[in-house]
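In response to a reviewer's request, we include the raw inputs and outputs for one of the modeled complexes. The four entities were modeled together in a single run.
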Amino acid sequence: MNAAVIGASGYSGEELVRLLARHPNVTLAAVTSRSLAGKPVADVMPGLRHLVGDLEFSNSDPAELAARDDLDVFFLALPHGVASEYADPLFQAGKTIIDLSADFRLGSTAAYEDYYGQPHPAPHLLQAAPYVIPELAGEKWKRASLIACPGCYPTSVQLPLIPLLKAGIIKPSGIVINSYSGVSGAGRKVAEDFIYCERNESMKGYGMPKHRHLSEIEEQLEKAAFTDCIVQFNPHLAPMSRGISTTIVTKAIGSLQDVYSTWDAAYADKPFVSVLPSGTYPDTKYVAGTNRADISAVYDPRTKNFVITSAIDNLLKGASGQAVQLLNLKFGFEETAGLV
Amino acid sequence: MNAAVIGASGYSGEELVRLLARHPNVTLAAVTSRSLAGKPVADVMPGLRHLVGDLEFSNSDPAELAARDDLDVFFLALPHGVASEYADPLFQAGKTIIDLSADFRLGSTAAYEDYYGQPHPAPHLLQAAPYVIPELAGEKWKRASLIACPGCYPTSVQLPLIPLLKAGIIKPSGIVINSYSGVSGAGRKVAEDFIYCERNESMKGYGMPKHRHLSEIEEQLEKAAFTDCIVQFNPHLAPMSRGISTTIVTKAIGSLQDVYSTWDAAYADKPFVSVLPSGTYPDTKYVAGTNRADISAVYDPRTKNFVITSAIDNLLKGASGQAVQLLNLKFGFEETAGLV
Amino acid sequence: MNAAVIGASGYSGEELVRLLARHPNVTLAAVTSRSLAGKPVADVMPGLRHLVGDLEFSNSDPAELAARDDLDVFFLALPHGVASEYADPLFQAGKTIIDLSADFRLGSTAAYEDYYGQPHPAPHLLQAAPYVIPELAGEKWKRASLIACPGCYPTSVQLPLIPLLKAGIIKPSGIVINSYSGVSGAGRKVAEDFIYCERNESMKGYGMPKHRHLSEIEEQLEKAAFTDCIVQFNPHLAPMSRGISTTIVTKAIGSLQDVYSTWDAAYADKPFVSVLPSGTYPDTKYVAGTNRADISAVYDPRTKNFVITSAIDNLLKGASGQAVQLLNLKFGFEETAGLV
Amino acid sequence: MNAAVIGASGYSGEELVRLLARHPNVTLAAVTSRSLAGKPVADVMPGLRHLVGDLEFSNSDPAELAARDDLDVFFLALPHGVASEYADPLFQAGKTIIDLSADFRLGSTAAYEDYYGQPHPAPHLLQAAPYVIPELAGEKWKRASLIACPGCYPTSVQLPLIPLLKAGIIKPSGIVINSYSGVSGAGRKVAEDFIYCERNESMKGYGMPKHRHLSEIEEQLEKAAFTDCIVQFNPHLAPMSRGISTTIVTKAIGSLQDVYSTWDAAYADKPFVSVLPSGTYPDTKYVAGTNRADISAVYDPRTKNFVITSAIDNLLKGASGQAVQLLNLKFGFEETAGLV
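The model returned the following structure tokens for the whole complex.
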């Protein structure tokens, strides 16, 4: 199977290249970037020198890529809006597309327009494009050829919450989420706010109260809860390269034991979700560089709340690792192939 | 006026030494530490070489210190429990004591025992020891000779919340607080969890749901609200040396304009509290090394919550800076003396 | 005395604003920046909110500034080449100018052209502009009205070496210098190489073997040694915001005792140079935020070399702090005024 | 093939566990630690949760381990001195031992005693124990059953220098080496000097002029040069978790082209050494997490020196990665097995 990474100039693209170059079942056959076309990948991603050989960035346009017989699966590491320009012809050509942008994450075109500030670029594809966190999504999605890979914050939120909402163990209303992301969450963005001296020794909130990922979080929580879920989502930047630490406060319906038995049932056979004992806190350090999510919870008898904490690597379980996990599951490879 | 820092071996003690050595109205006359007695301060705190000259750590016991005529004011940078061993004889001797420990922060001895795991060591002094965040405490406390300096997390919480609770602009119930502290919050603690490689690139929660500072936060919020305030307080460790970033979710009663007019009234003439425009987020980087607190708020019409953010330097406005501010105000010095 | 900071948008400019706003003998009367004119300084430098009040950036051109009667001393925090455009009219108008650029650091216009890639922009001013590290420069320079403030790396090199070269204790040939700078050494440069994720957890050399500061280092060492000094200078970037750590290997002529007695004689009464005992290593952490230089040396009997180490804060003793120290000395203020 | 990691409580041990748990040709059958015996490995190394399953630390003594039939190869991640207590009985029992300590790195027992402060603990084994950087060591060593894995600093020095010394392209005398190590170089040492706030934003030298690794460096350089090599070696600590950045100044004999053609010949078919073009600088960021060494050089016509720079991950190519590479080569596995 031959894979292509489209728009590989950012950090998610780099992680895709790293993972696919080592993948036992896949050949990384093309890496594209409009701005880097013709350059050796090893020059742009010196950390991957030992993996990429002489591979160069190519500058294929969507139609050309769709016409290539030698490419089977396409990972889109592109900005929202741009991703659709590729997804559409590739989909028509019968290719498999795993899209890491926001273009196919929302079922509602109204929400897309509200949160992303432009009309949805490819509404006709939405029905065909399942949104998939593999631990939560069942089996049907594997028949799709266009798959929406979830956002980083939303993954850190849904893995602990969705099973609990489905089981009715927490109240769907009044959920408060605080998330802290490493700076790579902003991608390889060259702006004053992201230079070293501005982010080092700095912690701050941003994008409150209506960060784009809120739309994705709420849509998915509501599907699980079968009711409205209006959440407070507070994203922050933390002085580290990678990792998301999320802390969620929810009203308890069931007991802490219910939380754990629900999680154990949901994740017992899932290689990438670790349920930590109550009182042990997920630490971004221990998931960085892995495709794992660590989750944990405490109960506060004073407030009758659960405080739920999770940690993921924003570039792996929050983006490229999850994308490769989707590939593995869709094509029947080992779920962990290329990911440990 | 001659000042002494008692128990100066930790980071708060070091900041006190720095501030007092530069203070225009105070002479730093003694610096004590049981473990460091006899050592030059400059050897233990090389960053202060230019400030401390030949000063050495002394090892005075409480009674000896109380008997010294040449010392007027004592800053206690000691663990809880130990602080009382000094506060008692110093108080009896008529000295001024600014205590940075938890010993006199709580009015309730039951809460002290519950949260600190031992009976209160000096209950007879509690009445005499006001708890003072200077921007919130009025004038009466200046007559006291034993003053409780608030904790770091509680300061970051109370500065934004107390005026709003007093004005009835937020609901006292259901408050959710997430705080992220730089590693110096743990003091100069030598333990595996605090070595560089364990904390670098790491973010995690700890001490949930009943961190010691919760008792202090709730007691003070309840005083302001004249009703119960059961809050959810989630402390975390962040990979930086200094700073606390706090994000608070509260139910709105008044409008965002009410929040800002209340804050403006409370802090217009306060040199150390900056009210930032809604949408500008306090950043620990911009308060590090200062005695300032930055606060800001947004309103979320979807949830009818305010999301309030604050940032302080945990060692300054959260400890030693506030202690010196207390000194300044009590003795009629410029409020900012030695602090800018 | 009224001071102006010209070109204050970078990190050195920010430090100048911080230092001058607190200076007991100086009023910070103007802060200029072409790109930021009209903006409140507090918005651009939020860390200085408590110091700058309502001050705004102004956009004066050189002639206008030279014509202002209310401004006495000008700090130029401008790129090389641009600085001369201001220095010339200000000098003609009889103002005092402390220039932090490279324009007046080199006596040789040929070296300037060689290292900076353009003809010297104001050769007629060179004779009038002394190059001054205050601990090394004697008294005559105080009569000058245009003063060249040395570079950061060169300051970290000259403070330990110049007295030893003058005393003939080290060989002038074969000196090897390795320097490691915090990222603020690149200023507030917005480029991919300086975004957080590129510099975090990264250490690398750059600019070898002919970094611009080499010209300044060699010219000054040669003046002290009265002979050629061809040195190997290896600059590097280190993952921290501030600080320069320099390690120098030189052939010994005298003994280690000679090194220390020479340093002690040179620096005994200098408040900003600390001579550390052999075996104690200067640490950037302990000079960060100060105008101090720490220096130390060991002797290696196997190689007959001295290994000399120094540490400074690149933005303070390496730039803005030293500039204010120059102001203090020129105008007869306390040498440490505004600097402790 | 069944492998055991002896003394796995430190960072090198953790990396060995990570690498061996993923190794395609090896089963990680035992992980021992006196202090951690009985604890699940996943609890002590939470970052490896997904790799180690239910494996527990065992507390076997040397004799017991030597008697176990189910263990074939032993990695000793022990302090010097202690390693010999295991190496001796394991060697007698015919096991394969890859020792990461210093015990078998030096051929000279006198040097061992001089640098490590104690008589050599197992001089009778020295002849049998080759010192092996695999890219430099030929083939004979593969017959040995006790192999000395080189130190981190020495690896970063020898990879660039040994081929040049052998080819006579650089002068063996007067070499100056500056190395900067991430804090994990000190292992999981719990001491005040290694807590986060002491190392963050800090750069400093240490252990000059006679660091323990100097003995190893000089012995190996002398073997390659067939003459004395008295080098100046300056180790430093840098504020990052992993990585060694080394900068070497040597007198040129040949040309820069000679340097590159020699390196190309030595490393063309070596998967873990990348020769970077002159003017491109090895960056610890790009080798962190890999077993790679990046090397580069510039020539300075003014000094007639080469300035050679290298970067490795101190825990991988500088320790555990190299150990696994040795295993691969000795047993005929792919050289990169388990290492990419």
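As requested, we also summarize the result in words. Residues 152-166 of chain C form the longest helix (15 residues). Residues 153-312 of chain C form a domain with the Dihydrodipicolinate Reductase; domain 2 fold (CATH 3.30.360.10).
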